[in-house]
Amino acid sequence: MAEPPPVNDDMRKQQERLGKGERKQTMPKLPASYPCVRAVDLDQNTIVAITVGVVSIAVGIGIPVFYENQIDSAAKRENTQPCFPCSGSGAQQCRFCMGSGSVVVELGGDEKEVSRCINCDGVGSLTVHNMPRQWHSTSLP
């Protein structure tokens, strides 16, 4: 059974006045018992949720910082590997015309149309100077 709330000085004075025949004043009614508030009242699910939130924030900050450091260190290091498409020669055979400089289109029957390759401008190979800019990272002179 719940124990009654503790009596403070104001309540005691009111009770004394009522005992002497004074008119009763309406006071706010106090709850039968006060809820017990603990500083730490966490269950296992709350602890897991808080831990996951903290780890997510740490990962969200840590991964971009890690990659930024890797990019910075790679930029400082000299690249000694040859270009993959041209093997370091600076030129590669055009894949559209297979190095011939012209493209043959069969129109039907025995008719064929021969036109200059639009990829290499009829040269037959792509060099750093006539490659599209997105294919190479070196600056053009």
TrEMBL record:
Name of this protein: Protein SPA
Region described as Disordered: spans on this chain: 1-28
Lineage, opening ranks: Eukaryota, Viridiplantae, Streptophyta, Embryophyta, Tracheophyta
Ranges of compositional bias, category Basic and acidic residues: 9-25
Keyword Membrane carried by entry: yes
Domain of life: Eukaryota
Record field: transmembrane: 47-67
Organism field: Forsythia ovata
Any single Pfam family the record assigns to this protein: DUF5351
Keywords: Membrane, Transmembrane, Transmembrane helix
